[in-house]
Amino acid sequence: MLDDKKIIKRNLGIQILRSLLCFWVLLNHCYNPNSQKLRKIVFKYRLHVPTFILISFYFSNKIFCCLSVTKIKNRFERLLIPYFILPIIILIINNLLYIFTSFGSFGKILNIKDLFYQYLFGRDIIPTFWFQFYLLWSTTLFIIISFLFKEKFSIIIIHIFLISYYFQYSNVNYKYFSSFISIVKYSLGSFLEMLPISVSGCLISSLNIFSLIKHNIITIYISLLSLFLILYFEVFRPIPKISFSGVVLNISSVFLFIIFYISPLNYIKSTTITKIILTATKYTQGIYSLHMFLKLILNPKIKMVKYGTFNGCIFLYIFCYIISFIGNKITKKNKLIYLFI
What we know:
Elements: H1 4-9, H2 12-30, H3 36-43, H4 48-66, H5 69-101, H6 112-121, H7 130-149, H8 153-169, H9 172-177, H10 182-188, H11 191-207, H12 216-232, H13 247-261, H14 271-280, H15 284-298, H16 303-306, H17 310-330
């Protein structure tokens, strides 16, 4: 358990942002809004995954800088344990349900081939694990670059940033991967679209920009205004995409990250309030991993989930939270806890 001093040091703004982004992911997969305005907000301005990427690489930059074996090991354990174990758990549950009740989330018996594709591309049994697939390979890439080039790490990743956008804006990436089957298209085709955002996270961390910010309220105001203007007036021209292409998502994610990172919430001194916020925003890993599978299970039983209502999405989020809470308690003393947190 964290002591009071460590709890107070946690960035509450980022904790809340992670929870909001997780709910946004769930909305994208489970929500069916009637209003066109809501549909536009939820599905058009898709900052959830890019901002998750930015957060991940901002806090992982220390790994690339110091190349600590312990930190590298911990990073890969957090990624690999859910990546390899959770698909097996879901496969077993699905197959048992299908055998004994003639109902399974996938409408069939899952087999070794399904598991193979899941591991190879990060999707099929758990489609959202393309995100873990990306994190695994991009983290490996950044570690190799840091190991080979050391002091020139930032220069190399800036070149990756520029090259990635060249392939995006020249439509080379889109044209090449759009012809592939979906599991290949959305896993491999999204890789170059995500790389510049990863670079942004590393550079923000390396430059230590938050130490330069003296007036948080003014910075938050400017960031909010900039974010509104960029999205509302569509300042940057849209380009064909596999998932999350274009510089607009990168810049918008940076502003969103800044807003929450320097949020006034971080000045809360009450340990009790801090613990409540940390508890309420916990288990984003479990919620992210389980929500689509549980949605398919609950669809025939719960109408608000089946029809994609907002209340249904809230129910699904809470249900995933409860399962993750129970799973966390069961696995608290071993590394299977990474399935949920």
